[in-house]
Amino acid sequence: IYSDRFIVDRARGRERKDEVCTIRSKFPNKLPVIVERYLREKKLPLLDKTKFLVPHENKIVLEASQALHLLISGKNMSCLSASMGEVYSQFRDPDGFLYITYASQDMFG
Description:
By secondary structure, the chain is an alpha+beta fold. Helices cover about 20% and strands about 25% of the residues. The longest helix has 14 residues, at about 15-25. About 15% of the residues are buried.
């Protein structure tokens, strides 16, 4: 389900844990998030970067005509009304990053 360039390499877990500790000490009000486009996604653009620092209270705001599907940590769909802090608390990886895959259509259908 992850894209080919998704940054989940368990051998480098310690390095990412250290990176998260550094980030959280410098930016205690931000969450470390890695965002990648779904491998088979055709409509939504690739992002210029994959690592983001996101405020705890951020929420996604979409028009009624827009659709966005998120896969969290490779397995869980997120309720788009939840704050990033809530999603991070529930689904963050043991390395401390929250991994999100985005798509314009349901990835399971």
